[in-house]
Amino acid sequence: MRDYAPLRCRDRELDLGRVVLMGVLNVTPDSFSDGGLWFDPGAAVSHAFEMVESGAGIIDVGGESTRPGAEPVDEDEELKRVLPVIEALAPSISVPISIDTRKPEVAARAIEAGASILNDTLGEAGDGSMDRLAASTGVAIIVMHSRGTPATMKALARYDDVVAEVGGWLRQKVTELTSAGVEAASIALDPGIGFAKDAQHSLQLLNRLEEIVDIGPPVLVGASRKSFIGAVLDVDEEQRTYGTAAAVALSVERGARLIRVHDVAEMNQVVRMTEALMEPV
Length: 281
Ligand code: HH2
Description:
This protein is of the alpha/beta class.
């Protein structure tokens, strides 16, 4: 396994000596696989602690579904969903909190409330505001590739070579982030599985993940329960655990150092087993 320096997240460092699981906490009524489950702030907070107990090293809080075709949520509503949860978690949870958003103002308020990682899912639609926010606050930033909005991304899934194009964009983002003043130690990259990608694109990105890993910063993969698994196995979201496990094992083997999942306990076993199999003998 490659050596990575810890990820610098404002006033704390996240050890990347082993693969880190990011537990998904969707405070939404309509996320594609767990919509409504953690919409109540009390339930969301308990679920976050459960995920840490099960091995999560980051809790990723999101208040707007980004699945293709999802209804947009206005800023006030998104803040109403995520802030109480972050405010409740920040003083007591042992792991960094990330804010998963497409809105710079939501990111800024979440950071004030205690988030120390900005999970920027705007992709090519970003205008540099997230970069400046990461630079001025010192939080870590995960830059994920996407195109358009949840309403338009499906139609924008057109590439000659998806791995080369996504890799080129991520490489360019690293330059932009460092010029904006973000420290190299605070950057992680994400190919954006399922975001303006069809099933074939997502499979290619995972198969050739090393080309993304070779860019340099630690790479996050979020394949959990996504539709490319449904396309291969012809199963609904709740039956995608084994498909997710296969994608997680392959991602770790190909060099991902952060893995975003819903089923933390199960995928923690998959990750730890894959790491053991990769130990030189
Ligand atoms: N995927 C989703 C949301 N945020 N962030 C990163 N960095 N990478 C991902 O792959 C990623 C992400 C979509 O999954 P989910 O949160 O379960 O669904 P929804 O967007 O419907 O809430």
